[in-house]
Amino acid sequence: MSLERLYGFTLILLILHQIDAAYWKEWEMFYLPGGIQGFLLFNLVAFPIIVVGYKKLLTQSSNYLAYSYACGGLGLLTFIIHAGFAMFGFEEFHLPLSIAVIVLCGVFGVWQLILTKQSASRKTL
User: Fold this and answer.
1) Sign of the CA dihedral running 101, 79, 36, 66
2) How many CA atoms lie within 13 A of 29 on its CB side?
């Protein structure tokens, strides 16, 4: 799979997770100040960065690999954080599609990190 397609899938999974996170009131799990407002502010900052990174990747603009690492890292981090929540007994995100999206964020995130590293290696040759 191409890095461009993989980034797109990871991005879509992260967006789906944030939609699901709004349903589960994820800001309460993180004790975010401002509640939903803090959650929305986080997304207002995070998603434009990741979307700009996707554009940079598609156009092979400067720093596109850094953005790809960031997107893949967010996918993996999403999985790690929610696995931790599950281990500590949180009951949110236990519906089958919620679990699937979180697991796929992790899988696609790791895959993207690996493919980005391979792309970086080829770029320096």
Assistant:
1) negative
2) 17
